[in-house]
Amino acid sequence: xxxxxxxxxxxxxxxxxxxxEADTPAGKAFDVVLLIIILLSIIFVMLESISxxxxxxxxxxxxxxxxxxxxxxxxxIARIIVVKKPWRYITSFYGIIDFLSTIPMYLSFIIAGxxxxxxxxxxxxxxxxxxxxxxxxxxxxxxxxxxxxASRAKILVFLFAVMVLSVIFGTLMYLVExxxxxxxxxxxxxxxxxxxxTTVGFGDIAPVTPQGQLIATFIMIMGYGIIAVxxxxxxxxxxxxxxxxxxxxxxxxxxxxRLNSQSCHNCLAEKHRDNAEFxxxxxxxxxxxx
Length: 290
Hints:
By secondary structure, this protein is mainly alpha-helical. The chain has helices spanning 11-20, 25-48, 51-82, 86-90, 93-110, 141-150, 152-177, 186-197, 210-250. It is flat and about 80 Å long.
């Protein structure tokens, strides 16, 4: 059967609609259940990090984590099985996140009891990557993501300018204050400048000379303006993206044109038109219910 022939309604196609699409009741229910499991798994990781809670409920948390890991393993395998080209999902962003959030429990089980490899227990902390699985359910994040991508060049130039200023003022403070005030080297002085410029102010190093305090005052005032710059850049781009989306929505659209969550089982592309027969990305025939 070629790629351009109609896609037979098999158990794989039914499972594909449930896992990758959200327009059907089964797909919505799957997303809701998966979202609840993700939130529970994150809560389990947090509770396990509290020594008093872990000491009292270690066995229960351990069993709960294994249940969650097994469920995620089943989901991961199912996502691989139902797509035509599994490697595309495996190497995709969410495929890697799904793998990283599942494998640590198995690794900790394999090396359990090995004193030489006790440091590898830290791999279990990778389970916190499950929080990134939540991003796929935040549809409004697309606009913010577009705004960040559109403004990345400006932000990079801004960050470069901040680093240049930090090096200049850090070197100046090293010359003015000296080692006796805690500015023992240029890197330490640059560190102090960044901490001051970002208005964090740890207080581990502080200028004591009038000249150093004058420079520090200027850096603090400049820091307030610097903090507002990236916010303004992203806000401007976000406003532009919102205006663009609103203008697009105001354009008259044919009554039969509507985007849905249908996912191509060949390339995993989403957001196809309801009346689309082929994937807009790879050209593969889409599956439709009779």
